Each structure stands twice: as C-alpha cells, then as structure tokens.
Amino acid sequence: MSAKLRGMSAESRTIIRKLDESTINRIAAGEVVERPASAVKELVENALDAGARRIEIATSNGGADFILVEDDGHGMEPRELRLAVERHATSKLPVADGEDDLSRIATLGFRGEALPSIGAVARLSIASRTPEGEAHEIRVQGGDVRGPAPCAFGGHGTRVEVRELFYATPARLKFLKSSRSEDLATLDVVKRLAMARADVAFALTMDGRRVLSLEAQSDLLDGRLKRLAQIMGRDFADNAVPIVAEREGVRIGGFAGLPTYNRANSAMQFLIVNGRPVRDRLLIGAVRGAYADYLAHDRYPALALFLDCDTAFVDVNVHPAKTEVRFRDAGLVRGLIVSSLKSALHEAGHRTSNTVSGDALAALRTQALPHMQYAPVGFSDPGREYRAPLFPRDEIQVSAARLEQTPDAPPAEPLPLGVARAQVHENYIVAQTDNGIVIVDQHAAHERIVYERMKKGLANGGVARQPLLIPEVVSLDPAEVARLAARAGEFAELGLVLEPFGPDAAMVRETPAMLGQIDVPALLRDLADELAETGAATSLKERLDHVAATLACHTSVRSGRRLNAEEMNALLREMEATPHSGQCNHGRPTYVELKLTDIERLFGRR
Question: Same domain for 52 and 195?
Fold first, then answer.
C-alpha cells in the first residue's frame, strides 16, 4: 500500500458501499426513461408482447403530467403484478437447458427495468385482468409499492397510468423540452411501433385531441402498405415499389420510394428488425449505396424495410433503450438491402413519381394578361360599343416551337410516353399519350440513357486499367493493409490492382483508366476507412460511377439541339426501354406527365 493511502485519514477516504434500492431505480430510470416518449415506448412494447390487438395511448402536457397506455392483451394475475414492478423480473426471456437464453430474444423487451424505473420517478398505477381472473391494481409512488388490490376493470388486458413523471427527480424535469416537442417525440415513437405491427390497432390522444387512429390491417405486404400510407402519407404509397428478397435465411420486405420521390434528410427511412423499429447506421449506408446512381448527395429516398431473421442472428441487447441492434453478419444484411433495392428500382423502369406532375400542376397559376390596348367596335345597341384588344408587336414575343405532323394511323401498341408532337425552346419534347401529355427534358433523358449504357459496358467487359509506370507504395496501418488485401479481388474487378507490401504498406500497380490521374494514397485510405466503417468499400465504385455520369453528361443530346420527329420518338422509345430513365443522374425528373383530367381541371372542365 502506498504511503499516501497509509497516511489517509478515515474521514477523507472514499468508502465503497452498496446503493440503496431507491437510488438504483432512479439511476436505472435515467437510462431507460429519458423523456415521456421513452416511457410510452416501453409501455406500448409491453402491450405488444402481451398479445394486444388494440392499444389506446393518451398523454397530457407532453406526457409530463399524464400518460395512459391501455391494451386488450392477456393481462396479469396479482402475483405477476407484484413481480412486474420489481427490477430484473421478466416474462420475456426464453429458458434453454434450465438457463436464461440471452441469444434468442423474440420479444420487444426483456430487461425488466421499465416499470420499476418509471415507478421510481413517477406516480404509477397498473390495473390488469386475465381472461379467466379478477381485476387487480398495484400502485408505485417514488418507489413505494402498494397492493395489489381488487379494482374495477372491464374486459381483459392491462391499463397503465403514469402521473407526474419525474416528480421524484425534479432536476430531470428541467431537461424536458416544450410540450409540443415532447408530443412530437411520442408521436414518432407510436408511429414507428404502429408501422412495425400493422395487425394491431393504435389510437393516440394528446391533451384530449385524437391525433392518430389506425385500424388493424393484414400483416401481409398489402396490409403493411395500407398502414404505411396512413403513417407516411398517401403519396408514399403511390410512389413506392415493393421489396421482396431472401438470402441465407434473412428475409427482407417492404417498400422503397422512387428516386424522384425524395427528401432533404433521412427522416423518412425506417428499418424494422423482427418487429422491432431500430435506428441503424447500416441501413443509412446501404440505402445510400443502392440509390447512389439516382440521387444527388444532398437528397434522401423514403422507404420502410422489414427484415426478419433467426433471433440468434441479431443481438438486440446492445442499447439500454433497445433502439440499436447488431447483426452476426452485417455484410450479408447490407448486401441484401442494396441488391433488393437495386432490383426493385430496376423493375420500376422509366417510371417517375406522380408528385412531379402534381408539383407542376400546383405551380401553374392564372397569370395576368399583358397590357393590351382596345379599339372601339360598334354594337347594334346605340350608345354601346365593344372595345376589341389590340396586341402591339413590341409587347408580344412568342418563342419558336416546331410542330410535328400527326401520324395518320395510331401506333400498333400502347406507348407509355406517347408520340412526339412538338419541340419547344429547343430542349423540351411534347408528346401526346392515350390520356394526356408528356413533357420531356431531352438532355436529362438522354444523359440517363447514355449513362446506363456505360454502366452496362463496365459490367460486361470489366473496367479498363492503366498500369502505373512506377508502382506506388502507400504506408498504412497493418489492420488497414489486411482489410484491403482481403478485398483485393473485388478491387481488381473495378480496375484497382493492389497487394500487400510488407505488414504496414500496400503497393498499387494499376488504377481504373476512367479515373485518369488520381491521388492513390488518398484513395486507399478512403477505401480502408470505409471497410472499417461498413464492411464494404463503395468509394471506388462511386468514383467510377461519377466519371461515367460526367462522361454521359458531356456526350448526351445537348440543350438547344433541334430534333426531328424521328429523333424525338426514338428518344421516347429508348426511355421506355431504359431502367431508371424517369430521373437524370442527379435525381431530377426527366419528364412530367399531365393526365387529360388534370388539364381539364386547369380549365374548369371538371
């Protein structure tokens, strides 16, 4: 023992002691119940685990004053009620060979800390009844437990009431945000859980106002889409493509928005794992990779993916709030997400989101006519005259538009993008369809067509390489060298030939010809960092795609080029046959379609 410790007085020493149960519960509450929305999440998850088919939620003052969660699940007996408010008591953890099995968790929660944690910082009451038993209620106030005792409770299930949240820890109240902010957080939690369980009805009331009412749907793909439409909006349902794929026992389903139906952030991206809504960096990275060809870097797609796998494949016990998961094979999951999304987007063909035409229609407004002079014209009625407008030449300027002759016979088969009728401003093709018109940006459309051709060439013939006159040696950490060497075969397919050069360096012999002169050390460090972050390196592929996109832009039909009818119709037919031709390489739409009914509404005919 050091002289310093030997000379320390008993009064100045820090004595190790065991915390009392009340303090332990308040500390646990800080981890599990960060805000009212956290309490709602825990209580709704309990209801779902109890087999509820309908869940009613109510809050007041952002949840700080009152939270109610009532369900029609299987309920609890008096003995279970008493255990439910004790720490580390749970009915949700499976037992294998006489021991708790932490590797196969099939419920939404099992920690057994939510109810005692809430009871430690609030006034908690739980009333419950099983289908065969009598209703009983238990109360917990600041950790003090009373009951259970008989109570009035119709039907079967459980009703949990939380009053004066954090009254026992006043300091925590100071960190709550405004009632509106807390309400929005609670609404987000309920929406995510409702998204995960379309087969359960949800109702949410805030300060006496019903803000969410969702009837139970089928848990199949069509039922999920109806629930998603209720939560994410009807536009999402109209502009999403279905996702269905499976690989090595991991199944993925859901819906992904068309690239032209995009957002300014990733708030509309949802991942549900075995019925559990999670926030996962893996999803964001995989989605970015899948949509890299179709969206600008500052735009994000909207999508909801449901991933189902064996419970042993995923660890749900990596975060106190159970919002993160860890996969046994993250590379498999990422690859499945990317491939399924790309396949679905490919199947969408030239389709673009209908919000493009909707936005165009919304932007159309009745404009004031230019200033006109009037000339008097006599009427048969003496004393009255009609002043006809005179349009001075210097006040009216009409841009030239080239009209095309209408074919004598209609096409033999339906043409989704119609037949070209005119070219306006030497950049926009106007085509007539069976039930409306289509306006095409000729440069953006041809840019996508050329780009897809180049990608196909890369895929079929591989990437052309350029040997370096002098191989370049790049110093790296041994772990980075190992990661790069393990993927050397994949990099070679993309034109990058490298090999280890001792334990702490890599030597590059060839680089992709499309990239021209590049900063080889910076490229390798980026690839190594990306492998460490996501288990996959996309930087090189993204650079190749960027070069292909740039070349496509410069070799495409330019704005201002006049096209004849044959050229315009050839472009329309190529668009119909080219995947993703509904958006250019930057995520903007290549055409706008206006239905005849939309046009008639503009003119008051409907």
Answer: yes
